[in-house]
Write a structure and sequence with these properties.
The chain has 243 residues and is α/β, with parallel strands linked by helices. The chain contains ten helices and eleven strands. The strands form three sheets. A six-stranded parallel sheet has the order 5-4-1-9-10-11, with helices on both faces. Strands 7-6-8 form a three-stranded antiparallel sheet. The protein has a two-stranded antiparallel sheet with strand order 2-3. Bound molecules: adenosine-5-diphosphoribose.
């Protein structure tokens, strides 16, 4: 493991194109619950059962209560050393992209600029009928209404069963295909298309690295797997990057 660690450090030092994919594990040390961990329940509901268009259509008040609760939770959290290390990594790599599945906004808060929020953001709201969309950090009503047409607003996140914004996926695929190094951090690698990015990167010649608390279905396919807390491993990897 020590050898792997030093090798990954050297690799990052030499790389010009790096893509990092993050998941809920990167925010765990900030106190944001992961999706599939033991804390991934809200009341008696699984997050996965609420983050769905059909759940919103049937019970908009319940789904909004869940999202307003998540907004309140994240508001109390702060970026942790993993977020900060990734913001630092961006400064050292000429072509860098951070693709996150997280909707908490903590990467941006930590100072990352080259971030793609592929599942949207808790801080975005959009109209269910017209094109109104906005960033909104305020406390929202139980059932927020569109200021333009008066219809119901919804969270600006991508739910299960919904497509990613086409331009976002296209850019992600393009960048992953061109990476020298692909690093996956704090994701269970169970949700597509992100769970296949490592293979896409590898098929195009990238070296692949996983940083996660525990093995995932992708671990065996990675060139390097570093197991432990992202908030401890990433700062160590970034310390001393020369570029
Ligand atoms: N450091 C590193 N990894 C961690 C840490 C930590 N401190 N804490 C937890 N992990 C790991 C867990 O071991 C797990 O493998 O992070 C992973 C989190 O997995 P999930 O909860 O499944 O989250 P994620 O992979 O981001 O989920 C993907 O699924 O529900 C949807 O849209 C939602 O974006 C989400 C997507």
């Amino acid at each position: 493991m020590v050898a792997s660690f030093e090798m990954v450090k050297a690799l990052l030092d030499e790389s010009r194109r790096v893509v990092v994919l993050t998941g809920a594990g990167v925010s765990a040390e900030s106190g944001v619950p992961t999706f599939r961990g033991i804390d991934g329940l809200w009341k008696t509901h699984r997050a996965e059962d609420l983050a769905r268009p059909d759940s919103f259509a049937q019970h908009p008040e319940l789904v909004w209560e869940f999202y307003n609760w998540r907004r309140e939770q994240v508001r109390k959290c702060e970026p942790n050393p993993a977020h900060i290390a990734l913001a630092e990594m961006e400064k050292h790599i000429p072509n860098f992209l951070l693709i996150t599945q997280n909707v908490d906004g903590l990467h941006t808060w930590a100072g990352s600029h080259k971030v793609m929020e592929m599942h949207g953001s808790l801080w975005q709201v959009k109209c269910t009928v017209c094109t109104h969309a906005r960033e909104d950090f305020s406390e929202l009503p139980d059932l927020p209404e569109c200021p333009v047409c008066g219809h119901l607003l919804r969270p600006g996140v991508v739910w299960f069963g919904e497509s990613l914004v086409p331009g976002v996926l296209r850019l992600a695929i393009e960048q992953v295909s061109q990476a020298d190094v692909f690093v996956s951090v704090g994701t269970s690698n169970l949700v597509q298309p992100a769970a296949s990015f490592h293979q896409l990167a590898k098929d195009h010649g990238a070296v692949t690295v996983e940083v996660n608390l525990e093995p995932t279905p992708n671990t065996g396919l990675m060139d390097f797997a570093l197991h432990g807390k992202a908030g401890e491993i990433l700062p160590e990897l970034v310390t001393g990057l020369l570029k």
